[in-house]
Each structure stands twice: as structure tokens, then as C-alpha cells.
Design a protein that fits this description.
Jelly Rolls; seven-stranded mixed beta sheet; globular
């Protein structure tokens, strides 16, 4: 489990490209036949992936967690961005189609991942935060999600937000999670940008064509920086940083938050005209 110790805004402002990528970009996920994990000091988030192919993968623990099993003191959100598969939680199996989500509460010892077809394997994105309460495991279907249409063609950000784990949906201790799909011809997400000191966030960009990239905007509103992000790469967004992006094609991204509260629209806006 790689450990990310994220820098503060003063140090971030003086970083070069490689230093920024090393500190905030997660590029080593979604390896076939493996479970990969990254531990981040911001709100003690764990970001990972499980990519079963021919064999079932079982979620274990890691020395950095100092736990008997992964969800001993944690909750876990899952989004399947690949082919059809299933997740087994304490012997109960949840069939996971593409863009299905799953919430697993604290205290579940046995978690396993399987693909239905090794030629079109499932790709499970994992996001976890510490939990001090226990909530039941819950399955999220795209058709059942709270969908919100935002943006317009005029501003190139027509998109649909699908909320899975949130105050009015699947209950959790602190995790909030869902995904956003941009329509063809729209490239900007999360505009105008904002910060939220109460929560940190992780963005996973996917469905990005191999020859295209997403420019993820970060940093302070008047001291912005950017990361060039490829398909299936994730960005850690600390509470002081804006988080917005524009792609050279439309794409999809999973957003997930943990921290002080679960209020989806609790944010401090950074008007576009003030950005530098």
C-alpha cells in the first residue's frame, strides 16, 4: 500500500510537474488480477481497485491500517467501471453491472470480487474512510440513483450527476460517493469551481479515450495548478484546493468525499472571474 503525504498550499505552489503528479495523482490502479491500494493522509482515505479476471479476489488488510481486517474500523464504497461482476459480503452476493455501486459498512470481514466473464472483466473502484458507526451494506443501481441534470451546451458542461451514497440515499458514516457523466460535446466538470474545508475529495476519471486527456484544475483559486490525467487515473483533492476539469473529449468521473459532514452542496464557490 503506497502512502501519500500531501503537501500544503504553500509548498504546492512551488512544485514542478513531476512533484505535483507524485503528490496528488494516483496512476497505478486497475491492474488485471490484482487488488491495489493507496493510503492518503488527508482524512485517512484509502483509494483502490480490484480487478478479478479468472479467479476471485479477496480483500485483505495492510500493515498501514493496523487492523485485523479491512473494514474493522472503516466503511467502503465501490463502483464497477468495467464488465459484469459480483461482490460477496459475508457470503451474500451482489451482482454488479457496469456503473453499479455498493456500500459496505464497518465490521464486514469477508469481502470478495469476481468477474462474470474473464474476457470482459469487472473493474471495481474502491474508496474508503474511517467509520465510527455501522451502516448496512446496500446495493446501488444506476436506474435507482438520484440523478441531477446540470450545465448547458452553451457552457460546454452539460452533465448528469448520479448520487449513490449521500444523506438522502444510501446511509454511511462519512462517505459521500457517486459519479458524473458528461454528454457528447461537453467537456467541463464542476464549474464554477469551489473548495470545501469540511471535506476532502477524490476524483477518478474513466471512459477517457486512449488518445485523449483531462486537464484537472487544482490549487488555490488565485494560485491554480493543473494535472494532465489519463483514463482510470485518480486525483486527490485536499480541502483547500479547487477541483474542476476539462477534457479533450467527454468522459465520466467518480467523485467521493469524506470529512466533517455529508452535505453535498456545502461548498465555498470560487467564481470563474477570480481564477488565476
Amino acid at each position: 500500500m503506497k502512502v501519500y503525504l500531501t503537501p500544503d498550499p504553500v509548498r504546492t505552489a512551488s512544485m514542478n510537474t513531476e512533484q505535483l503528479r507524485e503528490s496528488f495523482l494516483i496512476s497505478n490502479l486497475f491492474k488485471p488480477g490484482q487488488i491495489d491500494m493507496v493510503y492518503c493522509d488527508v482524512d485517512r482515505a484509502v483509494v483502490g481497485s480490484a480487478c478479478p479476471v479468472a479467479e476471485t479476489l479477496r480483500l485483505g488488510t495492510d500493515d498501514e491500517l493496523r487492523a485485523a481486517y479491512f473494514t474493522e474500523r472503516r466503511e467502503l464504497g465501490i463502483l464497477n467501471i468495467g464488465g459484469r461482476g459480483s461482490v460477496s459480503v459475508e457470503g451474500k452476493t451482489f451482482e454488479m453491472d457496469n456503473l453499479d455501486g455498493l456500500y459496505i459498512g464497518r465490521g464486514n470481514k469477508d469481502i470478495r470480487f469476481t468477474s462474470a466473464d474473464r474476457n470482459a472483466p469487472a473493474e471495481f473502484y474502491l474508496l474508503s474512510y474511517p467509520a465510527h458507526t455501522t451502516h448496512p451494506t446496500a446495493h446501488a443501481k444506476k436506474a435507482q440513483a438520484a440523478a441531477v441534470n446540470l450545465g448547458s451546451e452553451a457552457t460546454c458542461n452539460k452533465r448528469t450527476i448520479y448520487k449513490y451514497i449521500h444523506l438522502d440515499g444510501i446511509k454511511s458514516c462519512q462517505l459521500v460517493m457517486g459519479f458524473t457523466q458528461l454528454q457528447v460535446g461537453s467537456d467541463w466538470n464542476t464549474m464554477p469551481p469551489h473548495t470545501h474545508l469540511r471535506r476532502s475529495e477524490v476524483y477518478l476519471y474513466f471512459n477517457v479515450p486512449a488518445e485523449h486527456r483531462v486537464f484537472h484544475m487544482m490549487g488555490q483559486p488565485k494560485e491554480s495548478r493543473h494535472l494532465v490525467v489519463a483514463d482510470k487515473q485518480a486525483v486527490i483533492s485536499p480541502p483547500w484546493s479547487i477541483h474542476a476539469g476539462v477534457g479533450t473529449s467527454n468522459y465520466t468521473f467518480c467523485w467521493g468525499m469524506g470529512g466533517e459532514n455529508q452535505t453535498f452542496d456545502d461548498m465555498d464557490a470560487a467564481p470563474i472571474a477570480m481564477l488565476r
